[in-house]
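User: Can you model how pyridoxal-5'-phosphate sits in this protein?
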Amino acid sequence: MSSLVWIDIDADAPDGNLRELRRASGGGALMCAVVKSNAYGHGAREIVGLLPSADWFAVNSLEEGLELRGLGVGRPVLVLGHVPLDRLGEALGAGLRLTVYNRETVAALGRLVSPSRPARIHMKVETGTGRQGLPPEEAVSLAMAAAAVPGIEVEGLSTHFANIEDTLDHSYAQHQLEVFGRALGLLSEAGLNPPLVHAACTAAAILFPETRFGMIRAGIGLYGLWPSRETWVSAASCGNPVPALRPVLSWKTRIVQVKELPEGSYIGYGCTYRTTRRSVVGVLPVGYADGYDRALGNSAHVLVRGRRAPVLGRICMNLTMVDLTDMEPPALEEEVTLLGRSGEEEITAGTLAGWAGTIPYEIVSRISPVLPRRVVRGAAPEGVGGY
Ligand SMILES: Cc1ncc(COP(=O)(O)O)c(C=O)c1O
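Assistant: Here's the modeled complex, given as structure tokens:
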């Protein structure tokens, strides 16, 4: 049965990327696969089954954690986000590990735990990202209070970096690492040494050996994408091993109408494009409701039979128009690549991000979860991806 818009997932790429990240980061740390937000838009259901080498999984929400358990994932699952106090029992029942940074959460867990239903918590330290977490002294005091409750195990201490992806200057990350080190020192002085210390995302793991500790929380790299151009440039120039990452996802659609329009015709809402010649226009059944960013209007290209076709006019909710004038007119329902390779050409998530004024993370994580994901086995390796 054919689809009009769909995602192809290269079955071998996720685990290959995870093994590459493990290799490039020295192999000493556990690999936690970050599969939050529908596995960065790739499809959590499909991706978790393609990561046999992952030691842990991380998700954002309770619902995502329960979904993984429903899919039969028996490996440890860490919830990175807040679990509502009145749903902590569900998390414990599913054996999910919790990221904790609120006294209320510790108090509620104290009322819920039992020998058969322990809580394993990971205390989050605020080191300068200004989002979840407690400053070192408070994190340590809450960790000590939690550890004193029978049934609560402080299994981990964690933090998250603010700008490793954004800059070639890593002095702020170094500062964050020092703050995190202070929390670790204080905790150790108090006699508590959580078995799992973790701080590194993809960029940190590749660029900063000191951030790897016992576990790496890798997201974007698993999907074969570089966090940013800066990370790619840094990796290539810093002398550390560079992982050979292979993009996991291709985003495809089909042409639903080919039409000729005379010179001077307007195309799309707002009449923002006007043809300057007799034009052959392809209509694609994909739009911003599918996650194809509205900012791609009049800027992106798509690939048809290995050739670039520029997007004409604004992206509609469910439709996009492209210029086919300079190629052999494609047939109705011919395949079009929005993201991925076609012949010698490739449109990467980084390229789309540049056109849309955003980052590759947003391009992929906003692909509509209702689009079909097809796992393609034995896809020919198409080389490694750059930014
Ligand atoms: C807390 C936390 N850890 C790890 C990651 C993974 O980061 P990356 O996708 O850059 O590897 C994220 C992603 O946003 C995160 O929020």
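A couple of observations from the model: The mean pLDDT is 96. The chain has two domains: 11-238, 249-347.
User: Helpful, thanks.
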